[in-house]
Design goal:
Length: about 625
RNA sequence: GGACCCGUGGUGUAGCGGCCCAACAUGCCAGCCUGUCACGCUGGAGAUCGCCGGUUCGAAUCCGGUCGGGUCCGCCA
C-alpha cells in the first residue's frame, strides 16, 4: 500500500509483514484463501490484493477465536487480530513474501460469510469457462491474474497521464451524447426524450471535438476517452473501448510521432521495465514498404519471412510472362503479382497440412496457393514443378532464399490481394511456428498512407483514415481528377496517388493507433471533401461545427488516438482485450453479469415516442 | 450475414449407440487429527449429460433445430 489510510479493520495489509515485525501486534483483514484445520490448530491463509499471510489459531491459546475459525470457510471476509510471530524453524514458506512469519490470532472476527464460489478463486492456473467468469466477474476479479492485469492497466493509464501533464497537455472530457458523426462504423443511438423523434449518437471517437478544442486555443489536449462502435465483436474489439486521444496545435508529423514515441518508451519503462524493445527509435516504414515487405500495414517486425517478388524469375527480358504455369503468367499479364514467403522447416508438411494452408489462403481471398518444398537433399518437390521446369523451379527457390527443409508458398493475384493473403499467412505461420520472441515488444510507425481509396459503387475517393487528414505537401498537386472537374471522378485520377500526413503505430502485429496532421484551410478541405464526393450541403450538415470553426482562425494541428485496451492487453501478454477490461461484453454484445441489454420498462418507449416493431424478443 | 469449435455433478474433464439411473480429479458436507502450507485420514451427498424435436427395441453418444460461449471471414481504425 502506498499511503496508509487509518482503518479499524486492519493495521497492515496481507502482503506487508516481515520477520522484522516479529513480536508486534497486528490486525489483518481479507478473504480466506485457504483453511487447513488440524483439529486444535487451524491455519488460515488470509488474502487481500497485496498478498497472503498465514494466520495460526491455537485452541489452547485462543479458544473463542478457534471456535470462530472452525466455522470459517473459503472466501469468508475476516478481520484477525494477533501477534506477528516468526515461524518455527523449518516451517517457513518461501513461496510467500510473508512466509517468514505468521499471525498468531487472538481474535477472529467474521465480517462476512461466503457461499462456495462457482469456480476456484485460489488457483490462478485452473481453467474456467469464460462465460462463467463473466457472469461472476466480481469473483473473477478477485483472482490474482485479473488483479495483476487490472493493476497493470492502471499503471499504464497513470504513466500516460503523468507524461502528458509533464508536457503541458490539458486533460479535457468531451461529451458522450453527441451528434452522429460520419465515421466508418455504425453509431450507437440514444433517443432523446426532450425532443421526441430525435437521437443522440455515442461518439466513435472525440475526433471533431478535439479539433474544435484546437480552434479553442488549448494547444495540447488529451483524454482517456471512452468510444463506442456498433459493429461485430472480436477478441480485440468491444462495443465500448478506451482510447488515448490527443491533439496538438502548431505541430508537424515529426512532432507528433516524436512525442508519442517518447511516451511509448517511457510507458514501457514504467509498466514493463524488464521487457526488451525490439528497436529504438522505432522503425518507420512507409505504407508502400510495409505492404511490399510484409503484406500488412501493421507488420510484426519480430520475425522475418518477408514477401519475395518472383516476377524476375517468371518473365523474359522484355517483361513478358513465360513461366509455363498458366496461373502465374495470367496474373502477371493482367498486371498482378506473383509473390512468395518461406515457411522455415515446413517442407515436411503433409499433404493435408498444405491443403489446410490452401484453404486458409482461399479464406483470405486467394484463388489458390502454390508451393515448393525443398527436400533435405536439396531437391524440389512441387505440384507446379512440371509446369515451370526443373531449372525455373530451382531459380524460383533460389530467389526466395529457401534452404533445405523449407517450404515456399506462392500466391498469384492482383497486387493488393497477393500482398494481403501472404501478409495474413505470414502472420498465421509466424504464430504457429513460434517465430516471434514473445518477450520482445516490436513497435513501428507506418507513414505515408494513401489519402484515398476508390469507391467504385459511388464513384468517389473515400478517405482512408479520416476525412480531415492532410496531404503531404509534395502531393498537393495530386488532389485533382484527370478531367480537372472534381465532380467527374475516375479510378485513375491523380488523387489515387496522393499520400496523407497520416501515421499508424503498430506493436507486434497489432494496430495500436493512428493519427494525422489535419487540414486546417477551408479551401483545401473543400477540395478534399469534393474528391470524397461530399456536396457543400452534405459537408455543412455533417461537419458544420468544424467547418464554421475553421472560419474563425484554425491553427495547424494534428494528433493521434491509441487503443488503451489493446495496449494493455499486449503489455499483459494477452491476445484478448477482455482480459484487461473489468467488465467486458461477450462476442454477441451482452453483459452476462448485468444481463444487458434488456427490454425497456413498459412506458419507456412511450416516453420516447418509440414503438418496437422488430421480431419477437426471446 | 457466413464458417468452424465447445456445452456431462459446484468446477475442470472422461465416456461418443446397450457393459452408464454416467467415471475421474477437485470442490462441498460430516467425523478425526497441535505445525500445516494444494495438510492428511475416514465416511457421505451431489449431474436424467444446455434446451426442443427426430432416428432407434434402446440416445450423454446419431440427425435436425434452438439457446449460450469462443475463434475466424465479412464488417470495423
Amino acid at each position: 500500500m502506498s499511503q496508509a489510510i487509518e482503518s479499524p479493520y486492519r493495521s497492515h495489509t496481507c502482503g506487508q509483514l516481515r520477520a522484522t515485525d516479529s513480536g508486534r501486534p497486528a490486525r489483518l483483514a481479507g478473504w480466506v484463501h485457504r483453511r487447513r484445520d488440524l483439529g486444535h490448530l487451524i491455519f488460515l491463509e488470509l488474502r487481500d490484493r497485496y498478498g497472503i499471510t498465514q494466520v495460526i489459531v491455537d485452541a489452547t491459546e485462543a479458544p473463542v477465536a478457534h471456535a470462530a475459525a472452525s466455522r470459517v470457510r473459503n472466501e469468508f471476509v475476516l478481520s484477525v487480530a494477533g501477534t506477528v510471530a516468526a515461524r518455527l524453524a523449518g516451517t517457513e514458506n518461501v513461496r510467500l513474501a510473508t512466509g517468514a512469519i505468521e499471525l498468531r490470532a487472538s481474535e477472529v472476527e467474521i465480517l462476512s460469510e461466503a457461499k462456495t464460489p462457482p469456480f476456484y478463486i485460489n488457483e490462478p492456473d485452473a481453467p474456467i469457462d469464460e462465460a462463467l467468469r463473466l457472469r461472476y466477474r466480481y469473483l473473477d476479479i478477485r483472482r490474482e491474474p485479473m488483479q495483476r492485469r487490472l493493476l497493470l492497466r492502471s499503471k499504464l493509464v497513470q504513466a500516460i497521464r503523468a507524461i502528458h501533464h509533464e508536457h503541458g497537455f490539458v486533460e479535457i472530457e468531451t461529451p458522450n451524447l453527441i451528434r452522429s458523426t460520419p465515421e466508418g462504423a455504425r453509431d450507437f443511438i440514444v433517443p432523446s426524450r426532450l425532443k421526441p423523434g430525435t437521437v443522440y449518437a455515442l461518439p466513435q471517437s472525440p475526433q471533431q471535438l478535439k479539433q474544435l478544442l484546437m480552434v479553442g486555443g488549448l494547444d495540447r489536449y488529451f483524454q482517456i476517452a471512452r468510444c463506442f462502435r456498433d459493429e461485430d465483436l472480436r477478441g480485440d474489439r468491444q462495443p465500448e473501448f478506451t482510447q488515448l486521444d490527443l491533439e496538438m496545435s502548431f505541430v508537424d508529423e515529426a512532432a507528433v510521432i516524436g512525442f508519442v514515441e517518447e511516451l511509448a518508451i517511457r510507458v514501457m519503462a514504467a509498466v514493463v521495465p524488464d521487457r526488451p524493445l525490439l528497436e529504438v527509435p522505432f522503425p518507420r516504414l512507409t505504407f508502400h514498404e510495409a505492404i511490399e515487405r510484409f503484406g500488412s500495414d501493421k507488420p510484426d517486425l519480430r520475425f522475418g519471412m518477408e514477401l519475395i517478388d518472383l516476377a524476375p524469375e517468371l518473365t523474359d527480358p522484355t517483361g513478358a510472362a513465360v513461366s509455363g504455369f498458366r496461373v502465374f503468367d495470367q496474373a502477371l499479364a493482367d498486371g498482378g503479382r506473383v509473390q512468395a514467403i518461406v515457411a522455415p522447416g515446413m517442407a515436411s508438411a503433409s499433404r493435408s497440412q498444405i491443403d489446410e494452408l490452401t484453404e486458409l489462403a482461399r479464406g483470405y481471398g486467394a484463388k489458390g496457393l502454390a508451393w515448393l518444398a525443398v527436400e533435405a537433399d536439396g531437391s524440389i518437390r512441387s505440384p507446379i514443378a512440371k509446369f515451370l521446369g526443373a531449372e525455373r523451379a530451382a531459380a524460383v527457390v533460389a530467389r526466395t532464399g529457401a534452404k533445405s527443409a523449407d517450404l515456399v508458398l506462392v500466391v498469384a493475384d492482383r497486387p493488393a490481394m497477393a500482398a494481403d493473403v501472404l501478409g495474413r499467412l505470414r502472420s498465421e505461420l509466424g504464430s504457429r511456428l513460434g517465430l516471434a520472441d514473445p518477450d520482445v515488444f516490436g513497435y513501428c510507425w507506418i507513414t505515408q498512407f494513401p489519402m484515398y481509396k476508390w469507391d467504385q459503387e459511388n464513384r468517389r475517393w473515400d478517405a482512408t483514415h479520416n476525412p480531415f487528414s492532410g496531404v503531404r505537401p509534395e502531393d498537393l498537386d495530386l488532389l485533382t481528377t484527370t478531367s480537372g472537374d472534381l465532380a467527374r471522378r475516375a479510378p485513375d485520377d491523380p488523387a489515387g496517388q496522393a499520400r496523407a500526413l497520416q501515421y499508424d503505430l503498430a506493436l507486434n502485429g497489432w494496430e495500436l493507433g493512428g493519427g494525422s496532421i489535419r487540414i486546417n484551410q477551408r479551401d483545401l478541405l473543400a477540395r478534399s471533401f469534393a474528391l470524397q464526393g461530399q456536396t457543400a450541403d452534405g459537408m455543412a450538415e455533417k461537419f458544420g461545427a468544424v467547418l464554421d470553426a475553421f472560419e474563425y482562425g484554425a491553427p495547424p494541428h494534428g494528433g493521434i488516438a491509441i487503443g488503451i485496451d489493446r495496449w494493455a492487453a499486449l503489455l499483459a501478454d494477452q491476445t484478448n482485450i477482455r482480459e484487461v477490461m473489468a467488465f467486458p461484453k461477450t462476442q454477441s454484445g451482452s453483459d452476462l453479469m448485468l444481463d444487458a441489454p434488456s427490454a425497456p420498462e413498459p412506458g419507456q418507449y412511450a416516453e420516447l415516442g418509440l414503438r418496437y416493431v422488430g421480431p419477437a424478443r426471446t
